[in-house]
Specification:
Blueprint lengths: L8 H20 L7 H25 L6 H19 L4 H24 L6 H33 L2 H19 L4 H5 L2
Length: about 180
């Protein structure tokens, strides 16, 4: 039997867990006397990633999940995930990997066809151009993702999303949802 994130108790359980983590992050904050915030942020990163995956699965699987469940799961998951992910320079890492693979590919291509045009200097220049293009494009994408992540992982927003997640979770456990109550 395969594990299904869209099956009955999972959306409610993930909303409950994500909501509790969001409330802990929003309420405890960066208290220097306790490490609870660091633990909650680390747990939130993992739970947030799972919640984003679940929201995508709920949206694409045709499971009939309520719109409020998908929306709250996706937004809260994104907020929890981006709280940590915003600090990673992913654009630079991917650009370096792309430049490395470009250099290796061009080197192997030159070794196999022996054109003489792909000298080491040409390979380095092409790799640097690839690095710059990939980094530039990903930096723009990362900028917009960071802005959205900053808004979604802001403590007051996490608090509101946490409360909404707990309400949606309780309603899911009682076979209802905010969408059903609001008539969406």
């Amino acid at each position: 039997m395969a594990f299904d994130l869209t099956a009955a108790p999972m959306p409610a359980l993930l909303l409950l867990l994500g909501g509790l983590i969001a409330l802990v992050i929003a309420i405890v904050g960066r208290n220097p006397r306790t490490k609870i915030d660091n633990i909650a942020v680390a747990l939130g990163f993992v739970v947030g990633a799972v919640m984003v995956i679940e929201a995508i699965l709920l949206l694409t699987s045709g499971s009939g999940a309520a719109g409020s469940t998908v929306l709250i799961t996706g937004l809260l998951g994104f907020g929890l995930f981006m709280r940590v992910f915003r600090k990673v320079k992913i654009a630079l890492i991917i650009a370096l990997i792309a430049a490395l693979f470009t250099g290796i590919f061009l080197y192997l291509l030159e070794q196999s066809i022996h054109t003489g045009y792909l000298t080491p200097l040409v390979i380095v220049i092409i790799s640097i151009i690839v690095l710059a293009i990939v980094y530039g494009l990903l930096s723009i994408i990362t900028l917009f993702a960071n802005i959205a992540g900053a808004v979604m992982s802001w403590r007051p927003v996490l608090f509101i999303l946490g409360i909404l997640a707990l309400i949606e979770s309780a309603l899911l456990f009682s076979n209802s949802s905010l969408s059903a109550l609001l008539g969406w």
